[in-house]
From TrEMBL:
<dbReference type="Pfam" id="PF01869">
    <property type="entry name" value="BcrAD_BadFG"/>
</dbReference>
<dbReference type="InterPro" id="IPR043129">
    <property type="entry name" value="ATPase_NBD"/>
</dbReference>
<protein>
    <submittedName>
        <fullName>BadF/BadG/BcrA/BcrD ATPase family protein</fullName>
    </submittedName>
</protein>
<dbReference type="InterPro" id="IPR002731">
    <property type="entry name" value="ATPase_BadF"/>
</dbReference>
<feature type="domain" description="ATPase BadF/BadG/BcrA/BcrD type">
    <location>
        <begin position="20"/>
        <end position="297"/>
    </location>
</feature>
<dbReference type="InterPro" id="IPR052519">
    <property type="entry name" value="Euk-type_GlcNAc_Kinase"/>
</dbReference>
């Protein structure tokens, strides 16, 4: 698995190809400028972050603007062009959307070659098949790959139809619980206190306004998840809420496992996204659900920064 050398050299070898990896997520876009080191190591030269880069939920123009902003921040001060940029974005499995976003990003002129790939690609750069990848961040999706090319995608239907076990789903459930407690005039649970704190509101009207008047309602609701996750496992309500969402997500993962015809103990489970990468409790709950369904993986890896997987994919294309 690729490793990162955090300290950048003061002088970059002009012969070393510059690589740019971008994770275009539903909450933010994160870009890493790197060069390849010995073995599977990469030296990070620059980091850039900007707004949401998901063209499915935020529209292609807005997503492209955020991605380019993150890329430019990562290469700030660079005196030569990046060799290859790989951008992983939700919805890029659709060729029409992928090519449209790729054309827009290429026009920015930051890299000689700019490739847009589906959001699952970084997971396959970091784990060899058979592999099942699960992303739970603002939204959620699962996918499996048995060979080099065939990918089965499960879920990823967006917040209106899916996003089980995502930050949005956790936040929505917590918000519903909070509004129910307020309307019933019950003492506030720890979950409700965390919800009110995140939205900076303490009444039914205030909470509803905080959501419905937000420029990005989906991300606003998803932001509640962090406080709920922080309460588990010490708080019973928060623990129960997370376990329920982990169960919902496990059904999506199960469809990816069974659809690829993987046997228990016969695949790698690759986990990423802010919720799964950030919560050991939620990861354990998901794995417990899979074990209960007879779908235990052979090993589990946590992808804490998908942009590293994009850097690895960029490196592979110049080797």
């Amino acid at each position: 698995m690729p490793h990162v050398t955090p300290s950048a050299p003061t002088k970059v070898n002009d012969q070393s190809p510059l690589l740019l990896g971008v994770d275009a997520g539903g909450t933010k876009s994160r870009a890493l400028l790197a060069t390849a080191g010995p073995g599977d190591r990469y030296c990070i030269l620059g980091v850039g972050e900007a707004g949401p880069g998901n063209p499915m939920s935020h529209g292609l123009p807005n997503a492209a603007r955020s991605i380019v902003e993150a890329m430019r921040a990562a290469v700030d001060g660079l005196n030569r062009q990046v060799e290859v940029a790989v951008v992983a974005a939700a919805g890029a499995a659709d060729d029409t959307l992928r090519l449209a976003l790729q054309k827009t990003l290429a026009a920015a002129g930051i890299a000689k070659i700019c490739r847009v790939v589906p959001d699952y690609e970084p997971f396959f750069s970091l784990a060899k098949p058979p592999v099942v990848g699960v992303i739970s961040g603002t939204g959620s999706v699962a996918f499996s790959r048995a060979g080099d090319h065939d990918v089965l995608r499960v879920g990823g239907w967006g917040y209106l139809l899916g996003d089980e076990g995502s930050g949005y789903a956790i936040g929505r459930r917590a918000l519903q619980q909070t509004l129910g407690e307020i309307e019933a005039d019950r003492p506030r649970s720890a979950v409700a206190v965390a919800c009110c704190s995140t939205l900076d509101a303490d009444s039914r009207a205030g909470l509803l306004a905080a959501v419905y008047q937000a420029a990005d309602q989906r991300s606003r609701i998803a932001s509640i998840a962090r406080g709920v996750i922080g309460l588990a496992p010490q708080d019973a309500d928060a623990s129960a809420l997370l376990c329920e969402e982990a169960t919902s997500l496990s059904k999506v993962v199960g469809r990816a496992v069974n659809g690829a015809k993987f046997a228990a103990g016969g695949y790698t489970l690759s986990l990423g996204g802010g919720v799964l990468a950030g919560s050991q409790f939620f990861r354990n709950a998901l794995c417990d659900c899979l074990a209960s369904d007879g779908l235990t993986p052979a090993r589990i890896i946590v992808v804490r920064d998908p942009a590293i997987g994009c850097v690895a994919a960029a490196h592979a294309s110049v080797c």
